[in-house]
Amino acid sequence: MKETTPRIYVSNASITRGFSSNCFNPSLVYYQGDLLFFYRYQFKRELFNNIGFVKLDSNFKPTSKHQTLKIPKVTEKIKSCSDPRAFVWKDKLYLSCQQESFVNNAGWSTSVVLGNVDLNNGQLDNIHVPNYGKNFNYCITDAPLAFERNWTPLIVDNDFYIIYRINPLTVIKFCPQQQIWTEVEVTHKYSIIPYQTYVSGGTPLIPWRGSEYIGLFHTYVNTDENRRFYSMGFYTVDVNEWRVTSISPKPILTPWKNKWKDSRRHIVKRMFVETPSYEVVFPAGIIDCGNAWAVSYGWNDCRCYINIYEKNMVIESLIPC
Q1: At 115, is the secondary structure helix, strand, or coil?
Q2: What is the full DSSP assignment across 212-271?
Q3: 89 - beta bridge partners?
Q4: Which of 81, 95, 271, 316 gives 20 to 30 Å between its CA and that of 179?
Q5: What is the value of pTM for the model shown?
Protein backbone atom coordinates (compact mmCIF):
# COMPACT_ATOMS: atom_id res chain seq x y z
CA MET A 1 0.00 0.00 0.00
CA LYS A 2 1.30 3.44 -0.90
CA GLU A 3 2.77 5.59 1.85
CA THR A 4 0.21 8.35 1.31
CA THR A 5 -1.96 7.56 4.28
CA PRO A 6 -2.93 10.67 6.30
CA ARG A 7 -1.61 10.37 9.87
CA ILE A 8 -3.01 12.27 12.84
CA TYR A 9 -1.08 12.59 16.08
CA VAL A 10 -3.30 12.84 19.16
CA SER A 11 -0.76 14.19 21.60
CA ASN A 12 -0.53 13.34 25.27
CA ALA A 13 -0.76 17.05 26.07
CA SER A 14 -4.02 17.46 24.13
CA ILE A 15 -5.54 14.45 25.91
CA THR A 16 -4.38 14.94 29.47
CA ARG A 17 -4.03 18.74 29.42
CA GLY A 18 -0.71 18.69 31.16
CA PHE A 19 -0.26 15.85 33.62
CA SER A 20 2.84 13.75 33.10
CA SER A 21 1.94 10.46 31.46
CA ASN A 22 2.21 8.29 28.39
CA CYS A 23 -1.04 7.60 26.51
CA PHE A 24 -1.10 4.75 24.01
CA ASN A 25 -3.03 1.81 22.46
CA PRO A 26 -6.22 3.83 21.83
CA SER A 27 -9.63 2.61 20.66
CA LEU A 28 -12.20 4.55 18.61
CA VAL A 29 -15.96 4.12 18.70
CA TYR A 30 -19.10 6.07 17.73
CA TYR A 31 -21.77 6.07 20.41
CA GLN A 32 -24.96 8.14 20.53
CA GLY A 33 -23.56 10.78 18.18
CA ASP A 34 -20.20 11.11 19.96
CA LEU A 35 -16.80 9.90 18.83
CA LEU A 36 -15.10 8.39 21.89
CA PHE A 37 -11.41 7.73 22.35
CA PHE A 38 -10.33 5.22 25.02
CA TYR A 39 -6.64 4.70 25.77
CA ARG A 40 -4.18 3.10 28.11
CA TYR A 41 -2.07 5.53 30.13
CA GLN A 42 0.74 5.41 32.61
CA PHE A 43 1.92 8.05 35.07
CA LYS A 44 5.59 8.87 35.12
CA ARG A 45 7.74 6.40 37.06
CA GLU A 46 4.82 4.02 37.63
CA LEU A 47 4.75 0.43 36.41
CA PHE A 48 0.96 0.18 36.44
CA ASN A 49 -1.51 1.24 33.74
CA ASN A 50 -4.98 2.78 33.79
CA ILE A 51 -7.63 3.42 31.12
CA GLY A 52 -8.92 6.88 30.32
CA PHE A 53 -11.19 8.44 27.71
CA VAL A 54 -12.08 11.70 25.96
CA LYS A 55 -14.48 12.81 23.23
CA LEU A 56 -13.08 13.77 19.81
CA ASP A 57 -14.42 16.12 17.14
CA SER A 58 -14.61 15.34 13.40
CA ASN A 59 -10.94 16.27 13.04
CA PHE A 60 -9.98 13.85 15.82
CA LYS A 61 -9.13 16.60 18.28
CA PRO A 62 -10.10 16.15 21.97
CA THR A 63 -13.13 18.19 23.00
CA SER A 64 -13.51 17.02 26.60
CA LYS A 65 -11.30 16.59 29.62
CA HIS A 66 -9.40 13.40 30.27
CA GLN A 67 -11.38 11.10 32.52
CA THR A 68 -10.14 7.92 34.16
CA LEU A 69 -12.45 4.97 33.66
CA LYS A 70 -13.15 3.39 37.02
CA ILE A 71 -12.85 -0.39 36.61
CA PRO A 72 -13.65 -2.79 39.46
CA LYS A 73 -10.86 -5.30 40.07
CA VAL A 74 -11.92 -8.89 39.68
CA THR A 75 -9.48 -9.91 42.42
CA GLU A 76 -7.28 -8.16 44.96
CA LYS A 77 -4.29 -9.39 42.98
CA ILE A 78 -5.06 -7.01 40.09
CA LYS A 79 -2.50 -4.24 39.75
CA SER A 80 -3.09 -2.81 36.31
CA CYS A 81 -5.57 -2.46 33.41
CA SER A 82 -4.58 -2.16 29.76
CA ASP A 83 -5.46 -2.20 26.04
CA PRO A 84 -9.11 -1.05 25.78
CA ARG A 85 -11.28 -2.10 22.85
CA ALA A 86 -14.61 -0.28 22.69
CA PHE A 87 -17.69 -1.50 20.79
CA VAL A 88 -21.47 -1.17 20.75
CA TRP A 89 -23.81 -4.10 21.36
CA LYS A 90 -27.62 -3.78 21.51
CA ASP A 91 -27.34 0.02 21.68
CA LYS A 92 -25.07 -0.11 24.73
CA LEU A 93 -21.41 0.85 24.94
CA TYR A 94 -19.05 -1.95 25.96
CA LEU A 95 -15.35 -2.22 26.61
CA SER A 96 -12.97 -5.15 26.75
CA CYS A 97 -9.57 -4.83 28.38
CA GLN A 98 -6.93 -6.83 30.21
CA GLN A 99 -6.59 -6.91 33.96
CA GLU A 100 -3.10 -7.77 35.08
CA SER A 101 -2.32 -9.59 38.30
CA PHE A 102 0.90 -10.49 40.05
CA VAL A 103 0.71 -14.22 40.73
CA ASN A 104 2.36 -15.86 43.74
CA ASN A 105 5.15 -13.29 43.70
CA ALA A 106 6.37 -15.02 40.55
CA GLY A 107 5.38 -12.65 37.75
CA TRP A 108 2.57 -11.16 35.71
CA SER A 109 -0.58 -12.88 34.50
CA THR A 110 -3.37 -11.32 32.42
CA SER A 111 -7.10 -11.94 32.02
CA VAL A 112 -9.63 -10.44 29.61
CA VAL A 113 -12.61 -8.67 31.19
CA LEU A 114 -15.73 -7.13 29.69
CA GLY A 115 -18.22 -4.55 30.91
CA ASN A 116 -20.61 -1.84 29.78
CA VAL A 117 -19.46 1.76 30.06
CA ASP A 118 -21.42 4.26 32.16
CA LEU A 119 -20.23 7.55 30.67
CA ASN A 120 -22.08 9.65 33.23
CA ASN A 121 -20.23 8.10 36.16
CA GLY A 122 -17.08 7.24 34.24
CA GLN A 123 -17.05 3.60 35.24
CA LEU A 124 -17.21 0.07 33.86
CA ASP A 125 -20.30 -1.76 35.14
CA ASN A 126 -21.38 -5.40 35.16
CA ILE A 127 -17.85 -6.78 34.94
CA HIS A 128 -17.74 -10.16 33.24
CA VAL A 129 -14.76 -12.50 32.92
CA PRO A 130 -15.27 -15.02 30.09
CA ASN A 131 -14.42 -18.51 31.28
CA TYR A 132 -12.46 -19.69 28.28
CA GLY A 133 -8.87 -20.72 27.68
CA LYS A 134 -6.80 -19.81 30.73
CA ASN A 135 -8.74 -16.63 31.46
CA PHE A 136 -9.49 -17.69 35.06
CA ASN A 137 -5.84 -18.32 35.82
CA TYR A 138 -5.79 -15.81 38.68
CA CYS A 139 -8.43 -17.83 40.54
CA ILE A 140 -6.32 -20.98 40.70
CA THR A 141 -3.94 -21.50 43.58
CA ASP A 142 -0.33 -22.06 42.50
CA ALA A 143 -1.30 -21.90 38.82
CA PRO A 144 1.45 -21.23 36.27
CA LEU A 145 1.48 -17.77 34.73
CA ALA A 146 -1.00 -17.35 31.87
CA PHE A 147 -1.45 -14.52 29.41
CA GLU A 148 -4.90 -14.15 27.89
CA ARG A 149 -5.12 -10.97 25.84
CA ASN A 150 -5.94 -9.49 22.44
CA TRP A 151 -9.35 -11.14 22.12
CA THR A 152 -11.30 -9.58 19.24
CA PRO A 153 -14.91 -8.38 19.81
CA LEU A 154 -17.27 -9.04 16.92
CA ILE A 155 -20.97 -8.10 16.78
CA VAL A 156 -23.05 -9.85 14.09
CA ASP A 157 -26.66 -8.67 14.07
CA ASN A 158 -27.50 -8.90 17.81
CA ASP A 159 -25.06 -11.68 18.60
CA PHE A 160 -21.79 -11.16 20.46
CA TYR A 161 -18.76 -13.17 19.37
CA ILE A 162 -15.08 -13.07 20.24
CA ILE A 163 -12.30 -14.22 17.96
CA TYR A 164 -10.06 -15.94 20.45
CA ARG A 165 -7.41 -16.88 17.89
CA ILE A 166 -6.98 -15.76 14.28
CA ASN A 167 -4.78 -18.54 12.94
CA PRO A 168 -5.99 -21.22 13.31
CA LEU A 169 -9.37 -19.52 13.69
CA THR A 170 -11.15 -20.00 17.03
CA VAL A 171 -14.46 -18.21 17.65
CA ILE A 172 -16.61 -18.19 20.79
CA LYS A 173 -20.17 -16.85 21.26
CA PHE A 174 -21.81 -15.32 24.30
CA CYS A 175 -25.11 -16.78 25.52
CA PRO A 176 -26.69 -14.00 27.65
CA GLN A 177 -29.30 -16.19 29.33
CA GLN A 178 -26.78 -18.67 30.71
CA GLN A 179 -23.93 -16.13 30.91
CA ILE A 180 -21.65 -18.66 29.23
CA TRP A 181 -19.45 -18.84 26.15
CA THR A 182 -19.65 -21.62 23.58
CA GLU A 183 -17.35 -22.49 20.72
CA VAL A 184 -18.85 -21.91 17.29
CA GLU A 185 -15.67 -22.57 15.32
CA VAL A 186 -12.37 -24.21 16.13
CA THR A 187 -10.29 -24.56 12.98
CA HIS A 188 -7.28 -26.79 13.53
CA LYS A 189 -5.83 -26.13 10.09
CA TYR A 190 -3.56 -23.11 9.77
CA SER A 191 -4.24 -20.66 6.96
CA ILE A 192 -1.37 -19.75 4.67
CA ILE A 193 -0.44 -16.35 6.06
CA PRO A 194 2.82 -14.59 5.06
CA TYR A 195 4.13 -13.77 8.54
CA GLN A 196 6.99 -15.31 10.49
CA THR A 197 5.17 -15.47 13.83
CA TYR A 198 1.58 -15.58 14.97
CA VAL A 199 -0.96 -12.91 14.04
CA SER A 200 -2.92 -11.65 17.01
CA GLY A 201 -6.08 -9.62 17.55
CA GLY A 202 -5.91 -5.86 17.22
CA THR A 203 -9.09 -3.89 16.53
CA PRO A 204 -12.67 -5.10 16.86
CA LEU A 205 -14.06 -6.40 13.56
CA ILE A 206 -16.66 -4.24 11.78
CA PRO A 207 -18.95 -4.92 8.79
CA TRP A 208 -17.35 -4.70 5.38
CA ARG A 209 -19.22 -6.42 2.54
CA GLY A 210 -21.85 -9.13 2.65
CA SER A 211 -20.93 -11.61 5.35
CA GLU A 212 -17.33 -10.39 5.57
CA TYR A 213 -16.03 -8.26 8.45
CA ILE A 214 -12.76 -6.34 8.52
CA GLY A 215 -10.26 -5.32 11.19
CA LEU A 216 -6.56 -5.12 11.93
CA PHE A 217 -4.16 -7.61 13.48
CA HIS A 218 -0.68 -7.13 14.91
CA THR A 219 2.35 -9.39 14.65
CA TYR A 220 6.08 -9.22 15.32
CA VAL A 221 9.51 -10.48 14.32
CA ASN A 222 12.57 -11.06 16.46
CA THR A 223 15.99 -9.80 15.43
CA ASP A 224 19.44 -11.24 15.99
CA GLU A 225 19.90 -8.65 18.72
CA ASN A 226 16.97 -10.19 20.61
CA ARG A 227 14.78 -7.18 19.88
CA ARG A 228 11.10 -7.51 18.97
CA PHE A 229 9.60 -5.40 16.18
CA TYR A 230 5.82 -5.20 15.94
CA SER A 231 3.74 -4.38 12.85
CA MET A 232 0.10 -4.38 11.78
CA GLY A 233 -2.15 -5.14 8.82
CA PHE A 234 -5.75 -5.67 7.70
CA TYR A 235 -7.62 -8.98 7.53
CA THR A 236 -11.18 -10.09 6.79
CA VAL A 237 -13.36 -12.87 8.21
CA ASP A 238 -16.45 -14.45 6.66
CA VAL A 239 -18.95 -14.94 9.50
CA ASN A 240 -21.09 -17.40 7.53
CA GLU A 241 -18.27 -19.79 6.71
CA TRP A 242 -16.13 -18.78 9.72
CA ARG A 243 -12.84 -18.44 7.92
CA VAL A 244 -10.19 -15.81 7.34
CA THR A 245 -10.75 -14.75 3.73
CA SER A 246 -8.01 -12.19 3.04
CA ILE A 247 -5.07 -10.43 4.63
CA SER A 248 -2.46 -7.74 4.03
CA PRO A 249 0.46 -9.57 2.34
CA LYS A 250 2.91 -7.38 4.21
CA PRO A 251 2.62 -4.95 7.12
CA ILE A 252 0.89 -1.67 6.37
CA LEU A 253 2.77 0.02 9.21
CA THR A 254 6.02 -0.83 10.94
CA PRO A 255 7.71 1.29 13.60
CA TRP A 256 11.26 0.86 12.38
CA LYS A 257 10.51 2.14 8.86
CA ASN A 258 8.80 5.39 9.84
CA LYS A 259 11.57 7.43 11.39
CA TRP A 260 9.54 10.63 11.08
CA LYS A 261 7.57 9.52 14.13
CA ASP A 262 10.52 8.49 16.23
CA SER A 263 12.21 11.50 17.81
CA ARG A 264 14.99 9.89 19.80
CA ARG A 265 14.97 12.32 22.67
CA HIS A 266 11.38 11.30 23.46
CA ILE A 267 11.54 7.61 22.71
CA VAL A 268 13.87 6.89 25.63
CA LYS A 269 11.07 8.02 27.91
CA ARG A 270 8.73 5.39 26.52
CA MET A 271 7.38 3.34 29.40
CA PHE A 272 10.05 5.28 31.32
CA VAL A 273 12.61 2.67 30.27
CA GLU A 274 15.94 3.94 28.96
CA THR A 275 16.71 1.03 26.61
CA PRO A 276 13.47 -0.73 25.57
CA SER A 277 13.95 -4.05 23.79
CA TYR A 278 11.12 -3.61 21.30
CA GLU A 279 9.50 -1.22 18.81
CA VAL A 280 5.70 -1.24 18.71
CA VAL A 281 2.68 -0.33 16.63
CA PHE A 282 -0.51 -1.67 18.23
CA PRO A 283 -3.95 -1.19 16.57
CA ALA A 284 -6.98 -1.16 18.87
CA GLY A 285 -9.73 0.82 17.12
CA ILE A 286 -11.39 1.15 13.70
CA ILE A 287 -14.38 3.17 12.50
CA ASP A 288 -16.08 3.46 9.11
CA CYS A 289 -15.69 6.92 7.55
CA GLY A 290 -17.51 6.29 4.28
CA ASN A 291 -14.75 6.00 1.68
CA ALA A 292 -12.11 5.29 4.29
CA TRP A 293 -11.41 3.59 7.59
CA ALA A 294 -9.92 5.49 10.53
CA VAL A 295 -7.59 3.27 12.55
CA SER A 296 -6.33 4.19 16.02
CA TYR A 297 -3.10 2.68 17.28
CA GLY A 298 -0.42 3.03 19.90
CA TRP A 299 3.13 3.98 19.00
CA ASN A 300 6.00 2.62 21.08
CA ASP A 301 3.93 2.51 24.27
CA CYS A 302 3.98 6.28 24.59
CA ARG A 303 1.80 7.96 21.94
CA CYS A 304 -1.55 7.78 20.14
CA TYR A 305 -2.07 8.05 16.38
CA ILE A 306 -4.97 7.75 13.95
CA ASN A 307 -4.37 6.75 10.32
CA ILE A 308 -6.92 7.26 7.53
CA TYR A 309 -6.88 4.36 5.05
CA GLU A 310 -8.81 4.72 1.79
CA LYS A 311 -10.97 1.66 1.30
CA ASN A 312 -10.10 1.15 -2.37
CA MET A 313 -6.39 1.10 -1.50
CA VAL A 314 -6.94 -1.43 1.28
CA ILE A 315 -9.12 -3.68 -0.89
CA GLU A 316 -6.58 -3.65 -3.73
CA SER A 317 -3.78 -4.58 -1.34
CA LEU A 318 -5.40 -7.63 0.29
CA ILE A 319 -4.63 -11.17 -0.85
CA PRO A 320 -6.90 -14.21 -0.40
CA CYS A 321 -6.08 -16.78 2.31
Answers
A1: strand
A2: EEEEEEEEEEE-TTS-EEEEEEEEEEETTTTEEEEE-SS-SB-GGG-GGG--HHHHTTGG
A3: 92
A4: 81
A5: 0.92
